[in-house]
Amino acid sequence: MxxxxxxxxxxxxxxxxxxSSLDGADLGIRVPxxxxxxxxxxxxxxxxxxxxxxxxxxxRLPEIDYSRNGAQLLSSYVGExxxxxxxxxxxxxxxxxxxxxxxxxDEMIAPLAGHPGPRVWxxxxxxxxxxxxxxxxxALGVPFELDQEVAHDTLSEWTAxxxxxxxxxxxxxxxxxxxxxxxxxxxxxxAEAEFVIDLTGPTPTxxxxxxxxxxxxxxxxxxxxxxxxxxxxxxxxxVFGDAELLAxxxxxxxx
Length: 255
Known about the structure:
This protein has helices at about 5-20, 40-60, 80-100, 115-140, 150-170, 170-175, 220-230, 245-250; strands at about 30, 35-40, 185-190, 195-200, 205-210, 215-220, 240. The protein is an alpha+beta fold. It has two domains: about 5-145, dinb family like domain (Four Helix Bundle (Hemerythrin (Met), subunit A), Up-down Bundle); about 150-250, Nonspecific Lipid-transfer Protein, Chain A. Strands 5-4-3-6-7 form a five-stranded mixed β-sheet. A two-stranded antiparallel sheet has the order 1-2. It is globular. The chain starts with a helix and ends with a helix.
């Protein structure tokens, strides 16, 4: 996993990489991977998520205040130019990174599922920015590259947060995934990153390492990240074993 300090830095770095692609961009276009939003609205979503975490940490809230999250209230954002959004995004990322650096990583501020808020939010906002940077790059048709260490942490966070969240949030939809022998192996071909997702019990468990599973999905690390986040189909990646289980798994586990 990335260190806490690295994540604090990556929030700023990933936001800077995102905004660097916006020069001359039409922010009114729809984003294919988030079709309900324009590029303008997606950028506001990212910035408001940063500010939400920032505010909770600065005020040292003892629990998460979801009422302060403006990242979904996006209908009013129309026709804004990049000259307004770029500095707003960069300033918000810098402020969040600053407050994360000022608090102790293990303070119980805005904790999530019993985990210290600073650690959780440093990781969540790093990878929230990574994923939406891909959304922006894909919408604009510009190249997307991601450091392998960051990509490994993105995939690891998905197994630790998005996967159990889906089973908690949509129990009826995820119930068909549970069964004897139901295991999914994610195997990066360009990095030492392998995860085995065990679906044989009522809640999923995850192990790192190589072992035989009911179905394996193999490919470059970044492509695995995009696949589990439903940003790309599995076509072009290697699938071994129960392809129907994999298709159901990727369909039902969303975040």
